[in-house]
């Protein structure tokens, strides 16, 4: 990982009741490469004698600042707790950025699927789709108040799934996806969510719908009851 940048909190605001946006700036932010929206960064926290890293998506990037959106969990980890408590002027070490996670745009239509942890990346993907893109975005949120107004091509139909207990119903996203009218032609699919929800979706895309490997991005961003370090181990086991 590249040497971490020391960034400072410029401002913060609630996007919805369960999502807070922290804007980071400072001299180091200008050394970030351009066009990093949807790329991931590592936020670095010092807890007693341990250094913890938590992965987040760059939601927006401007010349002198970036926005990072944090989903607020009831059992908040170090990152969401920091976001809630951060004040203007506070600093944080930020590693990365890592690769952007963008949907392949070589298809006849598009399907984006995810929960609130993936909402920043889905939002960026919707903004970068061609104007004539058609398809669906299926997004799980905690409450109706967490539904956001998203910029998207007219042909993309956004379906919101309300799930008050994220991670507990691993069929919620799959059920909504199965209810969609499957469009003609080659689909390009981008999906990211809780680990068990991802495992429910994966065979539907790979086996039932036979989505080509180059047109399928599917990943888990977290696992209920696990911190990021534990989740990373489980993800590796799943790959193997």
UniProtKB/TrEMBL annotation:
SUPFAM superfamilies linked to this entry: Riboflavin synthase domain-like
Entry-linked CDD domains: siderophore_interacting
InterPro entries listed in its UniProt record: FAD-bd_FR_type, FNR_nucleotide-bd, Riboflavin_synthase-like_b-brl, SIP_FAD-bd, SIP_fam, SIP_rossman_dom
Pfam families, per the entry: FAD_binding_9, SIP
Domain FAD-binding FR-type: 2-104
Protein family (similarity comment): Belongs to the SIP oxidoreductase family.
Protein name: Siderophore-interacting protein
Organism: Marinomonas phaeophyticola
């Amino acid at each position: 990982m590249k040497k971490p940048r020391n960034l400072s909190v410029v401002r913060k605001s609630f996007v919805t009741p369960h999502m807070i946006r922290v804007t980071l700036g400072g001299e180091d932010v200008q050394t970030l490469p351009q066009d990093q929206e949807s790329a991931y960064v590592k936020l670095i926290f010092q807890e007693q004698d341990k250094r913890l890293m938590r992965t987040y998506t760059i939601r927006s990037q401007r010349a002198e600042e970036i926005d990072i959106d944090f989903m607020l969990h009831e059992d908040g980890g170090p990152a969401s707790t920091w976001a809630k408590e951060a004040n203007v002027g506070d600093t944080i070490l930020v590693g990365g950025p890592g690769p952007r996670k963008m949907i392949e745009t070589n298809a006849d239509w598009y399907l984006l699927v995810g929960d609130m942890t993936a909402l920043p990346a889905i939002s960026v993907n919707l903004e970068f789709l061609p104007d004539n893109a058609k398809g669906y975005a299926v997004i799980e949120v905690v409450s109706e108040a967490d539904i956001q107004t998203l910029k998207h091509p007219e042909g993309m139909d956004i379906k919101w799934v309300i799930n008050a207990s994220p991670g507990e119903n691993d069929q919620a996203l799959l059920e909504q996806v199965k209810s969609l009218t499957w469009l003609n032609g080659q689909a390009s699919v981008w999906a990211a969510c809780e680990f068990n929800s991802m495992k429910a979706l994966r065979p539907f895309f790979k086996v039932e719908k036979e989505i080509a490997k180059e047109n399928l991005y599917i990943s888990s961003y977290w696992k209920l009851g696990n911190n990021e370090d534990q989740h990373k181990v489980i993800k590796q086991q799943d790959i193997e």
